[in-house]
Amino acid sequence: MVASAVFVTDLQGKAIISRDYRGDVPLARAIDQFQNYLANVDEEAKKPVFHIDSNGEISVGEEVGANGVGGEHFVYVAHQNVYLCAVTTKNSNVALILTFLFRLAQVFKDYFGSLEEESIRDNFVVIYELLDETMDHGMPQSLDSNILRTFITQDANRMAENSNSKPPVALTNAVSWRAEGIKHKKNEIFLDVVEKLNLLVAANGSVLHSEINGAVKMRSFLSGMPELKLGLNDKLMFEATGRSNQAKGKSVELEDIKFHQCVRLARFENDRTISFIPPDGEFDLMTYRLNTQVKPLIWVEAVVEPHKGSRIEYMIKTRSNFKSRSVANNVEIIIPVPPDVDSPSFKSSVGSVTYLPDKDAIVWNIKQFHGGREYLMRAHFGLPSISRRDDADDGKKKGENSWKAPIRVKFEIPYFTVSGIQVRYLKIIEKSGYQALPWVRYITAHGDYQLRMA
C-alpha cells in the first residue's frame, strides 16, 4: 500500500487536520475535490472508494480509472461526525488502506475517549505525532495503542524524552504487540470462551437456520515475555495426534478460525497447537464459527386468540432445553403485538411482563431460568379495530398480519457452551519461572435468536 496523504474532515468535507507523506499529490486540491464529491454526489451513489482523473471526472466502483488517465484515488471511512480519508496516485491495496483508516480511528478513540470533531481540534499536537508514527512515507507502521503510548504521551502532548534517538524496542523486534519490561505484582490471565447462538425456528418447530459464533477473549496480566500454549478439544488436533478414537464425542470441529497476530500460524497449521506471546491487557485471541444443527436452548410457543368484543388474548409457554445444573440469566422474551392494542393485563407464573407501545411488543423478563423448567404467561389486550368489523373472521385476518414478526429471545448462560468446546490446558512459560494463575470461564448468549409464531 502507498498512501500519499491522509486527512480528517467534518461532515461537509472541510479539512480539520491533514498529513502529506509523499509530496506527489496537491493536498489542498485533493481536499477540495473530496469536499466537492461529498456536496455534489447523490447520497445513494456515494462509495468509500472513488477516483478523480486529470480531467476532473469522478468514477466509482468498477468504473474507477475508466474516465481518463492520471488523477487521484480516494478511500474514506466515516466515524461519528468526521471523515478519515486517504488519497493516493498509485494502484494501491484498497482493503489495506481501509483497514489502516479503521485502525487509525481506533487509536484516536483509545487516546481521546471518543473520535469526533471536537476531540481532534483539542489534540492537534498528539494527532500529528500519531500520524507520523502510524505511517512512514505512505507505508503503515505500528497501530497498537499500547505500544504507541510508550513513546507518545497524551498528557504532555509531545514525544517522550530520548524517543528521537532510539525507537521503542517493540517497533523493531519480532513481538511488536508487546513491550519489554512489563511487570505485574500478581501474574494472572483470564480467558473467556464466549459463544453467541444465531437461530431461526419455523412455526412447526423445525430449525431453519442455526449457527454458533464464538470468541476466545483474554485479559493478560503477566510479567516479562511469557510463552503461552492453549489446548482445545479441537477435532482436527485430535486426529493429527492420533487420539481421534479416545476423543470421540468430546471434540468439536471449528470453522472460519481467525487468530490475533500474536499466534504462530505455522505452528498451528503444523500440529494445531495454539502458541503465542500475548499482548498486555485485553484482546481477542481467536474467533470461530460452527455451522451446526442446534436445538433451541429456550423454546417459546405462542397461542394468539382474537375475540369478539374488541379483545385479544395471548398464551405464551416457554421451556428451557438445557440441563438443570445450568441457569440462563436475564432472559427476555419479546412477543410482537398489533399496533393498536390497549388496556394490557398480564399474568405469569414467573418473572414480570411489560408492554412497550413504542415497539409494538410485550417483554417477558425472567431473571433466572433454570434448566428443565417450563413457565406460562397470559396477556390480554383491548383491540378496538376488531369491533369495527362485521365479520369476526375479518378481524382475525387483520390480527394475523400483525403477528408475522417472530418472537425474539435474549439470554446469557454462564459456565456453558452450546458447541461443547473446552479448554484442555493453558500453559504459561516464562524464563524467570514465576507461577501464574489462569482463570477460564464459559458463556453462551443469544445472537439473532428468533422463533416464528403460528
UniProtKB/TrEMBL annotation:
Organism: Cylindrotheca closterium
Localisation: Endomembrane system
Family listed: Belongs to the adaptor complexes medium subunit family.
Gene3D superfamilies: 3.30.450.60, Mu homology domain, subdomain B
Protein name, entry field: MHD domain-containing protein
Entries under PROSITE patterns matching the protein: CLAT_ADAPTOR_M_1 (PS00990), CLAT_ADAPTOR_M_2 (PS00991), MHD (PS51072)
Keywords of this entry: Membrane, Protein transport, Transport
Claim: Magnesium is one of the keywords in the record: no
Residue span, MHD domain: 186-452
Domain of life: Eukaryota
CDD domains membership: AP-1_Mu1_Cterm (cd09250)
Entry GO CC: clathrin adaptor complex; endomembrane system
GO aspect biological process, one term: vesicle-mediated transport
